[in-house]
What does this fold into?
Amino acid sequence: MTTSRTIQDRLFDVAVIGGGVNGCGIARDAAGRGASVLLLEQGDLAQGTSSASTKLIHGGLRYLEHYEFGLVRESLSERERLWAIAPHIIWPMRFVLPHVKGLRPRWLLRLGLFLYDHIGGRKKLPATQSIDLHDHPAGGPLKPEFGKAFVYSDCWVDDARLVALNARDAADRGAEVRTRTEVLALERVGEEWAIRTSAGGFRAKTVVNAAGPSVLSLLGRAKVQSDRRMRLVRGSHIVVPALFDHPYSYFFQLPDGRIFFAIPYEQDFTLIGTTDRDHGGSLAEVRASEEEIAYLCEGASRYFRKEIRPKDVVWTYSGVRPLIDDGSGKPEAATRGYSLELSPEAEGPAMLSVFGGKITTYRHLAREAIETLAERLPQLREPFESDQHALPGGDFPVEGVEALRVEIAERYPFLDAGTVQRLVRSYGRLTLEIFGNAQSLDACGRDFGHGLTEAEVRYLVGREWARTADDVLWRRGKLGLRLDAVQRAALDEFLAGMAK
It folds into this structure.
């Protein structure tokens, strides 16, 4: 049995600090190359920025306006790669972009979408189409003045599950994952790093600083100098009862030049976002302001027949994006690209720091980070093609989601159709591991409501590092939108009992 003392005595090849998408992706890539890896996260996996995105794997159509062609090309090339390794949590989505008189002209939209279709190696995703909203299903919920529109392709992702599955895959390849372990200090001692945490000390040959918005703070704790400047930008989203019942999403423009999305969400809701506001407050409590909520409601009400008001909002979430400070005037103009900084060899054991990035490019970033670190740690040169290995539960063809849904429904006929759909879209083939040979709902243990059973909760605790009701309800899934206060309290009590 591996004890805490054994782990703390071990010298790891790589210690990754930060349990967001970049940190977990880097840990997976390093472990896939055979390195010994320690992943440290001060809270829960994806507790910060990585669970607060707009949930898109996309090229960033609006980045073309800022001439970031390289970033758009890199992002577009990742869409189908990521879809292929995680078809349970990533799936294609068609976006409707209405033309609005007085804003971006139609020729400019068409040119941008032509580039979007052709510079990223698109193979399976459908190409852009021109439509008339007056005779298209997507036009029904919109005000009648919107007529011409374009429909283009991107992908949806369950961002927090993407993080958890990368961590799970890293652990399956030998990585040690420690959540709720805050790094208090780092010190170079000879040829290694001594890492002091809230759970004791650890040792590593190299360190990856993937702390996201706290990247500069961690550099300070390690006494590592950097000339980098970061711009912390808050993005907020609102969730309202479903505004439409078709599968299309919307990409809307506003008179101030900004854009936002309206996306079908969790079967019964619509997700609207995002804002871009410079964030100067605490990272511990990041919330949507009343002004941001009103801004999104007003923006959506410009387009939808139904007026959306702040009182209609059932949930909000916000995250702080750690962007590279490139001197842009407006927050939305700041680059979504990333940069890696490797400490000088003369300073001793290496620290690689990650600045910026976006969820779509996490796998590419992880590979580049490990290849950069391999300059100082030769064992990392072992090849690992991360886009050729499915994430846990995703070992089925992208066209096979419906076949898997039918298989799960037939295997577990006691689960209702909505629960089967949720399980397939959250766990893929891991659903079979969760429920095993269960023949009835009673065999799955306690029922917490809305299809959440003890079997699933025990799986999340044992295999995905969940510890609290928030971990289960908001990051491993979104059942927090459905369970009431009594049900949430019962789940918290159950989890507290498991921890004893």
The chain has a mean pLDDT of 94. DSSP finds 14 helices and 20 strands in the chain.
